[in-house]
Amino acid sequence: MIQIEKFNETYNKVHCSDDIARELSDYFTFEVPGARFIPSVKAKKWDGKIRLFNSGTHHIYAGLIEYVEDFAKQNSYSCERLTDFTDDVIENVSDVVDSFELTKEPRDYQLAAFAHAIRKRRALLLSPTASGKSLIIYMLCRYYNVKTLLVVPTTSLVYQMYTDFEEYGFDSKSKCHMIFSGQEKDVDTQIYISTWQSIYKLPKKWFDQFECVIGDEAHLFKANSLTTIMKNLGNCKYRFGFTGTLDGSHTHKLVLEGLFGTVKKVTTTSELIEQKYLSEFRIKAILLGYDDETRHLIKKATYQDEMDFLVNHPPRNKFICNLAVSLKGNTLVLYQYVDKHGKAIYDEIKNKAVDRQVYFVSGTISGSDRDDIRRAVELEIDSIIVASYGTFSTGVNIKNLHNIIFASPSKSRVRNLQSIGRGLRLGDRKERACLYDIADDLSWKQTRNHTLNHFVERIKIYNEEKFEYKTYNIPLKG
Q1: At 366, is the secondary structure helix, strand, or coil?
Q2: 66-89: average pLDDT
């Protein structure tokens, strides 16, 4: 016999025997992907497993109630809810939204996502890049009209969300407060827009003021920090997570669902392109070939040694710079390492593109300056941005972006899809976008190099997402 009772807004309590509790603990225990590479696991200080059910307190994240019921059904245990978890009712969604007097007309799928969130009171909304997540978030803030904590992963997104609300017709100046490094944490306002890094160490008492929490780009929140924030929001009734991409792991999905609610797919990238909400998109995968002497030199290199070689290889960097300068339209070059790669690429492009505006963005550039660059590029037609993945791969809204160059290889599904999203937004002077995926063939005989394996993983992603792509084999000279 299993009985589920609400403990607070973060946890439910499962009433069951000790034997069933042990079974539940096993059922909700998962190894973190790549755990064997984590230093604390290597040092045998942690077993690399996440346990979503506490067999001591019988607590489990509130968003996992349906998974507990699935467990009971699979094992032929009776299961009942001691607390009423029925959905809220919302009627005449269009009339409700009309009362907000939006400056932008919501799309059908945005209205459906808004209505779903209201009914469920908590949800993890899977909505791809450029699908208009910020408008759905804004409508939720307007509907509840309570003290709301809006959590984002970067300072750039704090500024962007603030300005997006202004564009929708909101008085952000008097009703929103931005929190990032060094900003005041306590003000008298309705909506706090904050990076998670700025608040996760604050005392629980600070979080008690909020009735609604919304996490944008929720997949990027550091797990321990996110759970700390959500645990401290034990009295926060309305919880919504937004993400364009999940990393594909069952563990990641369950943690986010537990904290926010079950996944609801809002729409897909292919549907948005088909409906002309996103620009047409194609991928040119450029596979650089190296001579036998170089391949032999790299054949036993570790992943980090290979990366160090690539980002410091003059012919490769020259190729990337020449490509960026040759492209027409606004171009975003994404790199991983600031000092040993990003700055070198920027300097060379700056020297070559003497008649064009060239911007450099890294973590040292303030959020307001990044937002100024974003706004400036919207008004330009032939600029180049050299930016780190960490600052411009996620969430940053540049509608007038024509080309993206992956200067550093990655196999991360989340990073790659988020980066692609930078080029999908429609602009007045743009109909099509192109990604130039730079890959490197340093394989020796039957052994593929590390970053070539990462390229194979990216191709799998492109196939899964039904992106149009073509591979070009180009021998690298010099």
Answers
A1: coil
A2: 93
Q: Please say if the pLDDT value at position 208 is more than 90.
A: yes
Q: Is 416 exposed, middle or buried (0-12, 13-18, 19+ CB in 10 A)?
A: buried
Euclidean distance between CA atoms 206 and 224, whole angstroms: 18
Higher pLDDT, 39 or 394: 39
DSSP for 185-204 reads: S--S-SEEEEEGGGTTTS-H
Q: 3-state DSSP call for residue 171?
A: coil
Q: What stretch of H or E contains 181?
A: none
Residue 240 three-state SS: strand
Average pLDDT over residues 136-148: 96
Could you please state the CATH topology (level 3) that the domain comprising 94-267 is classified under. Rossmann fold (3.40.50)
- Whose structure tokens read 């196939």? 463
Give the DSSP per-residue string, 272-335.
HHHTTSB-EEEEEEEEEE--HHHHHHHTT--HHHHHHHHHT-HHHHHHHHHHHHHS-S-EEEEE
The token pair that represents 383 in the structure block: 């600029």
129 pLDDT higher than 80: no
Query: Do you know the residue count of the chain?
Result: 478
Residues in contact with 149: Cβ distance below 8 Å, sequence separation at least 6, in sequence order:
192, 194, 199, 207, 210, 212, 213, 214, 233, 236
Q: What is the pLDDT of residue 423?
A: 58
Q: For domain 2-81, which CATH number applies: 3.30.780.20, 3.50.90.10, 3.30.1370.10, 3.90.480.20? A: 3.30.780.20
